[in-house]
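MODEL INPUT / OUTPUT PAIR
PAIR INDEX: 1
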Amino acid sequence: MDDIRLGAILLEGGVVDEAGLERCLAVQTLTGSSRPIGQILVEQGLLDEATLKRLLELQRERVETARAQVVATGLACGALLTAAAANGASEIVVGEACPARIRVGTGWRRLTDEQMSGPEVWDLVRDLMGSEVLESLAEHHFVVRSWSLDGIGRGSATAFRHFAGVAMRVTFAAAEVPAPELLGVPAPVVDAVRGGKGLVLVVGERGIGRAELLASMTQLAAGDPSTYVVVVGDEPLPVAPTAAMVERRRYGLVPAQQAAALRSVVREDPDVLVIADVGAAETFEIALRAAEGGRLVIAYIDAANATAALARVLNYYPVHDLPRVRSSLAAVLRTVFVRQLLPDVDHTGTAAASELLVVDETVREIVRRGELSDIAMLLRAEGGRAGHSLDRSMLGLLQAGRVRMEDVFARAEEKAWLLERTRDLQPNPR
């Protein structure tokens, strides 16, 4: 891995000599090792900005290549999963007539060069999910199971049929549950969970680490030993043993199954209900009624931001029922927390950006009226008590040098606002 360091690339190309590099490293050490070596090289007159930019691009290319250097030693289930875990993958997808691919950070890359045959994929499905899954797959066309292998990890696996044959998607669960603060969960959301009542909406798009985020919030909710927590979902949540009683229920993959599962859970009268997805009218209505009953409900919904999440919820209902729903939602909603993952500055990992809506009397009145566009205005206001927008969070990451401008600009809603505030921002060499 030494050949991906900027110093090694400089020496390899003869751009600087060892004495010049050592002098710059000494300067870096004297300044607390906080300044990038590339910046010091430019200041010392050993490089110009254009050359440094080309070298950094070369370094990024080598990093991308190095991240995929742990290749599978075979097509057996254990070999593929071991290689995927060694690459830091969050999921792996295998399918007939395709090479195995893994998701690392926010991007996809190949794990194998050769395409996989039908029998090889069937063997993987059977080894990981059990031989009985083949019959279920033939009948239902997709099957979801939890998996766990000693020395490799655990997670969920989905086998499904497609036009070319059969495929399988395998996700990896975190070995340990990070504290909410380490996942970027703001203090008002933590306070709302500890408060033990109301509705906390968790919002995001695919690939934000939903299982890990919900597991962290479940762990937080289970901090009181007198609490009864029920988690409804099909993905395993790696919740550590706790003094509280934490139970899991299967959710199902169609709204009718999900609604039936939630009704059954609510009849058990838990203190906390964690729902992996409220993406249908039936399931959200049950979650809303559960929160009205004095429970804490932590529910996930797919959306890009807080306003879109609330709009999606209200679109579940017919027009004549909206006044009731808006009134109920305003009464029980505590916070809306949006999490998005961006490629980091080196494109070798991720950086978390967030949007936060704290529900106070102003927000409750907006929800009752259904004028959701006012929420976006509140979140854009500087120093507002209602929370912060996703654009403001991404701006903070950009100013800290953790992400690239092009990645932030592509996701920003208020692009002119972002450009105005980054006009004098200098790029952070890496």
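PAIR INDEX: 2
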Amino acid sequence: MATEESLKLSTEQKLQQRLTPMQVEFGKMLEMTGLEVEDEVRRVLDENPALEQCDNDERQQNLTEGSDETFNETAEDVQLADYRDEDDIPAYRLEARNYSADDNYYEPIAVDSSDTLIEILEAQLMEYDLDETQLAVAKYIIGNLDDNGYLTRSISAICDDLAFNAGLDIPLEEIKKVYEIVKSLDPAGVGAVDLRDCLLLQLNRKEKNRSTQIAFDIIKDYFDLFSKKHYDRMKSALDINAEELRDAMNVITSLNPKPGSIITGGSSDRTRHIIPDFSIETDLENGDITLTLLNRIPELQIEETFSEKACEIPSNASRSQREAATFIKQKRDEASNFIKILKMRQDTLYRVMTAIVKIQRDFFLTDDEKLIRPMILRDIAEITKLDLSVISRATAGKYVMTQRGIYPLKLFFNERPIDNEDTSSHEILAVLKDIIANEDKNKPLSDDVITKILTEKGYDIARRTVAKYRDKLGLPVARLRKKL
């Protein structure tokens, strides 16, 4: 009986949506930035022999066919042509080179001579009388500092790392002694574990007086009150007057919360440079807007030897001939699909950006963020007839360059904070920012008061919305905006 039940057949109907490999590749390509697409094109050109770059340079073709145009400029002439006039040409480029053909001539090269934070700190270690083990520990500690100069691992964890990874079995107390040396290096504050520690390290090096002592006591014993700006409670706890507190606060605000940024410039090697995907030029007189899709993607084509005829397999073909024809057909199809996907990406990006320009026309004519209209993905879909997921991928990580700046496309997507009104969140954000910028810093406005002011200006929004927008602008609550 059990056997009969196990062999019982049943039918089930399911509705599934599957993406073709080409659709999957198109989705990936659409999400890429311009630079990433250029890299992908170069990679495919190297890997697929069936794909080649079109040669549309007619001038170069005419020259190779023997036209009358000749190129007689030397490499030196080309380099000198980069300068506007002779006054801009460096002296070394105008020097007479009285050397024989066999002599070596070294031309000055502009190089970046700036040192990193790690290099500067390690150079200072040479001023201390450290043995090899202590020097290795100090360098390991320095290697665990971030770009701002903060220590990213605890001393106990570093002790374990040295034992397991470097084979250095060093007592924790010895490592702490070396750590104190690292914290004594310049700039002041490096090696700190947190902001409080960083400020204390800097205050320890300040000239001792009444103000610096009060500042030190505030950070050491009342850091929580300081971070929350409870000025009255600080005055009471320290038994000081308003003027003494003001002088101490001036000392604290003169400190650098990111000491390593003095050397690194506050930047990281991982900083991504923004390269716009679109360019917009406007003619204010005529109200014309010109949209350009920016990229350096070459025009591609199928290589001649991978023609359809080469894919044909003769009836009497040998095994090697069949394999060769199959290889040619496979590479030809891959190249053809890649060209189609690339074209689909370009067309989709242009259609989406054209729709954005159509909706946000007033902004692109003025670059005034107050004029950004409410817009969601569905608005673009109604114009382009594209799927919402396609539009989302097309706008992710993309930027547009106008005559006044570069903006992310996500800037233009915002819902209506007020139902049935054509008011964008950007307009309210701009008004909110202006209200807070012009408030009395001795008596900052609460969210309730700001809500009333916005209502008087015609923006009928809830207090919780005001709080959300204030947080979005990175502005703290009224108490933390108060100044002495």
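PAIR 2 NOTE: The two ends are 89 Å apart (CA to CA).
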